[in-house]
Amino acid sequence: MFFALVQDKKWIKRLKDNLEEHRLLHPTLKITQVGDWTRIPLSQCSESDIPELVRQHSTIVEEEEPQKTDSKLQPKLKYSVYPPMALIVSGQQVDEQSVQSLLSINVTHVAINSPIKDATDVVRRPKIIPVHGDFGPEPTLESINNPTESDFDAAFWATCVQHGVHQTWAPRYTMFSRGNIKEKNRVLTQFNNQQVISDSIVVDLYAGIGYFSLCYAMQHPTLVLCWEINPWSVEGFARGAKRNGINVRVIRHGEPFQPLQNDRIVIFLEDNCYAVERLSKLTSLPQFQQTPISHINMGLLPDCRLAWGQAMKIAALSPQKTVLHVHENVAADQIESYSLQCADELAKGQPGCSTEHLHTERVKTFAPGVWHVVMDISATNPIS
Ligand SMILES: C[S@@+](CC[C@H](N)C(=O)[O-])C[C@H]1O[C@@H](n2cnc3c(N)ncnc32)[C@H](O)[C@@H]1O
């Protein structure tokens, strides 16, 4: 039988109603909570009968019809399911029985997550402890820094669908932060009101596996241009983009970039300090001279200050206003004053450009009294 695994709570009722309308909601089995997923049981049907809305906003898994005793096996563990993997929150006792019960919810890989301890690790490399399943070869310095196609092929890749956007990553090499779902929702539903995304260029200076870039790409900009230094994130991002049916190209450092008609996402595998140079060349091409740079995403924690100057130079290339999305960990009692100060400091970095603080979003608590915030700051070049 099939189950729909739903992670985004706001979709649960709509998907349940939709299944009911199609007479596909299981008449006796209950909807249950599995880690942070809601598991909706479907009546007997073939996969092609499952409505499009349900497919788009859930992960469909096929499992044996549960026996009554199964509920006793449900572990009390805290974990997340990223098909086909269950990732157990660190610091818990994990025994064979709990692993077996996780395997019974149709995952094939189980690992224990441990937090990124090194705050200076800019590429945010994760540390997972594989417990069950083939997670691919143990990373080596060479495979981490200079992966080959065969390293990519041998690695284990996990997936997650949020707001209908597929994301892919190799858990041994890059992290996935499900806590950013709130910010992804803002990208999808609110950023277009700040500055229109369609027919514009969007820039992501810390693209990672693309969870923000993909949300922009869904809104039909002319191009999403991304910078990322971790080759594993770039590979995951490219795989994720293809999974979403979005055309993607990877340009390595030193390779020239000639835009092509069907480019949608271009990922530069290099430091974002080269972004200004790349964008100056692009915006001097006749076909891009009038294309606004609508949004610049800057998603690095604890702060992205190193890219502030670059971001303002990029905004100055735009014929219309650009909205910068500045991520930072900020003490709760300083958020308002710091946001205004941030807008002033950014303006000072690009004489002639004016800035305006539009909004500050509290994404999640980072530590007691400290919030991961995103400051939306518009930058306008006087000649625009
Ligand atoms: C917090 S993660 C961003 C998460 C991202 N939104 C995603 O979808 O995965 C920050 C990313 O910035 C990358 N990074 C850090 N410094 C960079 C730099 N100077 N240039 C380009 N990428 C950088 C890291 O490798 C990491 O993937």
Automatic annotation (TrEMBL):
Pathway: tRNA modification; wybutosine-tRNA(Phe) biosynthesis. It holds the Pfam family TRM5-TYW2_MTfase. Gene3D superfamilies: Vaccinia Virus protein VP39. GO terms for biological process: tRNA methylation; wybutosine biosynthetic process. It is found in: Cytoplasm. Keywords: Cytoplasm, S-adenosyl-L-methionine, Transferase, tRNA processing. The keyword Transport does not apply. GO terms for cellular component: cytoplasm. InterPro entries: MeTrfase_TRM5/TYW2, SAM-dependent_MTases_sf, TRM5-TYW2-like_MTfase, tRNA_wybutosine_synth_prot_2. The keyword Metal-binding does not apply. Signal peptide: none annotated. PROSITE patterns: SAM_MT_TRM5_TYW2. It catalyses: 4-demethylwyosine(37) in tRNA(Phe) + S-adenosyl-L-methionine = 4-demethyl-7-[(3S)-3-amino-3-carboxypropyl]wyosine(37) in tRNA(Phe) + S-methyl-5'-thioadenosine + H(+). S-adenosyl-L-methionine-dependent transferase that acts as a component of the wybutosine biosynthesis pathway. Wybutosine is a hyper modified guanosine with a tricyclic base found at the 3'-position adjacent to the anticodon of eukaryotic phenylalanine tRNA. Belongs to the class I-like SAM-binding methyltransferase superfamily. TRM5/TYW2 family. This is tRNA wybutosine-synthesizing protein 2. The lineage of its organism: Eukaryota, Fungi, Dikarya, Ascomycota, Saccharomycotina.
